Amino acid sequence: MPATRLVTDSASDLTREEAAGRGVEIVDLDVRLGEIPPSETRTWPAERFWEECAKTDALPETSAPSPGAFKEAFSRAGEQGADEVVCVTLSSKLSATYQAARTAADSLARELPVRVLDSLSVTIGEGYAVLDGAAVAEAGGSADEVEQAVMATLAGIRMYATFDTLENLRKGGRIGGAQAFVGSLLSIKPVIEFRDGGVEPESRQRTRSRSLRYLADKARSLGALSRLAVMHAAAPDLEVMLDMLAEFYDRDSIKTSYIGPVIGTHAGPGTVGICCQLA
């Protein structure tokens, strides 16, 4: 068992299998869908979440984990032999999750060293950083070395997405700089960049196909990539996106995954995003 253990949150969109395989513990954010409580939604795979969203007009809602939930996760890592814990959270600009983890870490300061890293990222970008940190921990790396690996991965991540609607972002209060798009939604398909921990406007495209083409061209323009992933919210045109990316990147090497409930709550159905890691 590595002396340094990693903890993250469910906004990283790591599957339970991916996390368990690397000795990573996931602390869940709460997601409520209408009358369906978080205790039920957290048991769903992402695909089920989108199936249930399609059955209701209710918009899902999220809330950050309590400091107690993080404290339990950190304590379990210590009980399992960890000398130090590195916790990677979603962007502090989008959620109180980072602060909850910091509060928990402070409460254990005399018992177990815990360092909390604000990824300023979400979904696969956050998840890649966690997995790379976990690989260093598995190899016997110190907390300093794990942190260096996490931050190095995050430094090379670029993420963009196109939405069918900004309604989820607007109602959830996470719209950030993309507020500039509001008022012209009937005539555009917005493209955003996730930059510096927040949502920023990137481009206005007239049609969905053009927004997908913009994403593909943006990925191509970044040059050599060590990773390329597509995350989507039950998007019916996923294959179209993959075909465009396959024009310059080996299709079999492109990771695809559903956007999970936490980020999906704010992104909305039909969202397609790309996560590029610079080589």
Q: How much of the sequence is in beta strands?
A: 15-25%
Second-tier CATH architecture of the largest domain:
2-Layer Sandwich
CATH fold topology of the largest domain: Hypothetical Protein Tm841, Chain: A,domain 3
Count of the domains: 2
Which CATH first-tier class of the largest domain would you pick?
Answer: Alpha Beta
Q: Secondary-structure element sequence? A: EHEEHHEHEHEHHEHEEHEHEHE
- Adjacency order of strands in the biggest sheet: 9-8-7-12-10-11
Written account of the structure:
With 279 residues, the protein is α/β, with parallel strands linked by helices. The protein has two domains: 4-29 and 64-155, 3-Layer(aba) Sandwich (Rossmann fold), CATH 3.40.50.10440; 157-278, Hypothetical Protein Tm841, Chain: A,domain 3 (2-Layer Sandwich), CATH 3.30.1180.10. Helix content is 38%, strand content 24%. The protein has eleven helices and twelve strands. It has helices spanning 16-21, 38-41, 46-53, 67-79, 97-107, 123-138, 143-155, 167-172, 208-221, 238-245, 261-267, and strands spanning 4-9, 24-27, 30-32, 61-63, 84-89, 114-118, 157-162, 189-195, 198-205, 225-232, 255-258, 272-278. The protein has a six-stranded mixed beta sheet with strand order 9-8-7-12-10-11, sandwiched between helices. It has a four-stranded parallel beta sheet with strand order 2-1-5-6, sandwiched between helices. Strands 3-4 form a two-stranded antiparallel ribbon. Helix 9 packs parallel to helix 10. The radius of gyration is 18 Å and the shape is globular. The mean pLDDT is 92.
